[in-house]
Amino acid sequence: AQSVTQPDIHITVSEGASLELRCNYSYGATPYLFWYVQSPGQGLQLLLKYFSGDTLVQGIKGFEAEFKRSQSSFNLRKPSVHWSDAAEYFCAVGARRGGATNKLIFGTGTLLAVQP
Amino acid sequence: DTAVSQTPKYLVTQMGNDKSIKCEQNLGHDTMYWYKQDSKKFLKIMFSYNNKELIINETVPNRFSPKSPDKAHLNLHINSLELGDSAVYFCASSQAYLRGPSTDTQYFGPGTRLTVL
Predict the structure, then answer these.
(1) B102 pLDDT higher than 60
(2) Which of B37, B66, B69, B35 lies closest to B52 in space, CA to CA?
(3) Could you tell me what percent of chain B has a pLDDT over 90?
(4) Which residue in A83, B15, B65, B108 has its CB near the most CB atoms, within 10 A?
């Protein structure tokens, strides 16, 4: 079955520290992978995506993610966290039918808190 | 300019009522979606439309009826509201269906928080 697992429900880091949010997926074909961020009371903003090619993808706000097929993972990283990064982060896989993504399957999210 | 907009942002209503949520996108996209985010923040697809045609109906109760008057709009009508319908409903859109991965990125609206009392 298609699924996305985010093992960490809640993470707290200090401002300026590095960050890694974990994401594991289960999907029968080559996955299309996404990371979205949701600030309190806001919608979902796309951080980055992976479709094919270079397995290290760069996104907005200084985030990057690495696709590792052997580990079925797509972890999100940032070298130095800012207080404004405090938010909920969602990993998603694009489920496809007939070659097109017809829905996103989301993980349960990781809530990031940033300490001063 | 807001790319994907939803109205209203908040909706509080009594059980048994009928309500609608509207979604509009000005991105020129062909495909639109409704997702439900429950109280635990879990997001799940409900419907998707491509050029006004229903693609996905993800085992949603038939009290929920999406309507797409044109490809820029996808509204969600809910009949006989129940307590369990309380959630945040997100509309999203993507460029095109069946045209490859570069067009598959979904852009989300700000959400509508529905509270059923």
Answers:
(1) no
(2) B69
(3) 66
(4) B108
